Amino acid sequence: MVYIKSKNEIEKMREACRIANLAQKAIERAIKPGVSTWELDRIAETTMKENGAIPAEKGYPSGMKGVPDFPASICASVNDNIIHGIPSKHTILREGDIISVDLVAYKDGFNGDCARTYCVGEVSEEAKRLIEVTKQAFFEGIKYAKKGNRLGDISHAIGEFVQANGFDVIKEFQGHGIGREMHEDPGIPNYGKAGKGIRLEPGMTLAIEPMVVAGSPEICEGDDGWSIWTVDESLSAHYENTILITEKEPEILTLV
Predict the structure, then answer these.
(1) Contact at 8 Å (CB) between 61 and 86?
(2) Per-residue pLDDT in tens (0 to 9) along the chain, 256 residues
(3) 254: which of 17, 23, 59, 192 fits an S-S bond (Cβ 3.0–4.6 Å)?
(4) Alpha helices in 82-224 (DSSP H)
């Protein structure tokens, strides 16, 4: 079921999204060679709590027997770790790395979700281009995030743009609706056919998130039961915002 948010609910979502964006900015300022992903996790949680929110990812259930709930406040995924990287004191950022940070702030019953991929010092030209294409793919997709369009219009635009630039998207994970729950209907793939899927309506809140790889789109799961990696060890990037479908242009709630 897709939930249409009321004006009051949208205001609460704006606040959760504002805090999520603040946490990303705090992380961005801290990223440099020698910093651990655990330190970034602490910064994010502190920022959220100082603003009256909590990290929604912390304690998120795995849904799989034998796999513990997610233990951290952010997902911190370095280089060929696509998503769901668990922060650690032993994962130290190095010059030339790229790191994707996905986080969700929860406040007053609503969630705000965003992801960014950052450079650690000077990185390769391929890495820079991968990050830029991933970010632009989001903006290509939301050109179609308008009242009356189909969900597949967004998915199609993202996938076509990524592949036209020589990269690929992973198919096993996708964007999603968001609101009272971190993950709500509808699921939003980063590939698909235009003109397919549900019609977009004002009041829908969606987390659009291209997850892009420089090499093969084949993936594998880490031993921790959470982290997802590229099979060929190629670089990956992730860019996400929570958006609101309006009567006119979409509003990006996590860019404030």
Answers:
(1) no
(2) 899 999 999 999 999 999 999 999 999 999 999 999 999 999 999 999 999 999 999 999 998 999 999 999 999 999 999 999 999 999 999 999 999 999 999 999 999 999 999 999 999 999 999 999 999 999 999 999 999 999 999 999 999 999 999 999 999 999 999 999 999 999 999 999 999 999 999 999 999 999 999 999 999 999 999 999 999 999 999 999 999 999 999 999 999 7
(3) 17
(4) 125-142, 151-164
Domain assignments of the chain as residue spans, ordered by start: 7-252
Q: Please give the distance of CA 138 from its chain centroid, rounded to a whole number.
A: 10
Strands 74-78 and 98-107, bridge-based pairing = antiparallel
Architecture of domain 7-252: Alpha-Beta Complex (3.90)
Q: What angle do CA 84, 160, 171 make, to 5 degrees?
A: 35
DSSP strand pairing (110-119 vs 241-244): unpaired
Structure tokens, 82: 């696509």
Give Cα 171 to chain centroid, integer Å: 15
Phi and psi dihedrals of 185, rounded to 5? -70, 150
> By the 8 A CB rule, do 154 and 188 touch?
yes
* Residue 210 near residue 190 (C-beta atoms within 8 A): yes
The tokens for 14 are: 């704006």
Please give the single-letter amino acid code of residue 137: A
pTM over cut 0.85: yes
Q: How far apart are the first and last CA of the chain?
A: 28
Instruction: Count the neighbouring beta carbons within 10 Å of the beta carbon of residue 150.
Output: 18
Q: Which of 155, 156, 113, 158 is nearest to 138 (CA)?
A: 158
